[in-house]
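During the no-cost extension, the postdoctoral fellow (Dr. R.K.) reprocessed legacy sequence entries with the updated structure-token encoder. One reprocessed record is reproduced below for audit purposes.
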Amino acid sequence: MTITMNTVESSSIFKVGYRRRVMQVQFNSGRVYEFRKVPRAIYDQLMRSHSKGEFFNREIKDSFVSTEI
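Re-encoded structure tokens follow.
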């Protein structure tokens, strides 16, 4: 599945993409992770958050199954 990635302003996250409950996150290190079964509301909140890294760590990191791709 191809997901369009959008560049974000963050000291830890470079790009984020979302499609059909799958979110991809590319970190500034270059590593890319795919998170499954992510509700659209969580993605929307991440994109609106002032600190995307803090939001990611608090709401996403340990809450959804992830795979490095």
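Residues 12 and 28 are 6 Å apart (CA to CA). The helical segments are 40-48, 52-60. The remaining legacy entries will be reprocessed before the final report is submitted.
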